[in-house]
Amino acid sequence: MIIQIRVDDRLIHGQIAVVWSKQFNTTHMVVANDKAAKNEVQQMTLKMATPNGIKVLIRSVDASIKVFNNPKSKEVKMFVLVDSVQDALKIARNCKVESINVANVGRFDTSPDKVKLNSDVGCNKAELEALKEVAKLDMETIHWVIPSQPKMSVKKLPENA
Fold first, then answer.
1. Is 13 a catalytic residue?
2. How would you class 7 by CB atoms within 10 Å of its CB: exposed for 0-12, middle for 13-18, buried for 19 or more?
């Protein structure tokens, strides 16, 4: 069961390891990212950033969808990390998801058509279209950087475009 997909272009980092793993009381994280799935150095880095007691699986987006839809995964609370809104949308369209959190996006995107929606979210044209589709999903779709801050509906982000 996917308790949340977090869109964060850094994937696993200190805030994820220290704050979010405790917020969801999960023992399983999945990094659904095509580049990381092919890059052994990045995989080692992500695993080093994962706290003790948390199992991390690093797979391509398509391979992750197969994992999420496996009946064995139904009882496992999984916190999923992706680095693009498009990947979150693809997973949500193919799996049961409780929540999508568009948290930190676009910091490393140098596209000329990138639009900054707020201090944490910047989207190129394709990401912005995916964000608008995420906002239409029948589930919690939020922008929530850290648990001590209030959640904001993803529907409000494109209003800034």
1. yes
2. buried
Q: Which of 3, 9, 10, 13 is catalytic?
A: 13
3 state DSSP class of 71: helix
Distance of alpha carbon 95 from alpha carbon 30, whole angstroms: 14
62-69 contact pairs (CB < 8 A, 24+): 63/37, 64/30, 64/32, 64/91, 65/32, 65/90, 65/91, 65/94, 65/95, 67/30, 68/2, 68/30, 68/94, 68/95, 68/96, 69/94, 69/95
Q: Phi and psi (nearest 5°) for 5?
A: -100, 125
Pairing, β 78-82 against β 2-8: parallel
Q: How far apart are CA 149 and CA 83, in angstroms?
A: 21
- Among 68, 57, 60, smallest CA distance to 37 is for 60
First to last CA, the chain: 33
Mean pLDDT for back-to-back runs of 10 residues, the chain (161 residues)? 96 89 90 98 95 94 98 94 98 97 92 91 95 96 94 85 57
Region of residue 145 (phi > 0: left; psi between -120 and 50: alpha; otherwise: beta) = alpha
**CB of 27 within 8 A of CB of 79?**
no
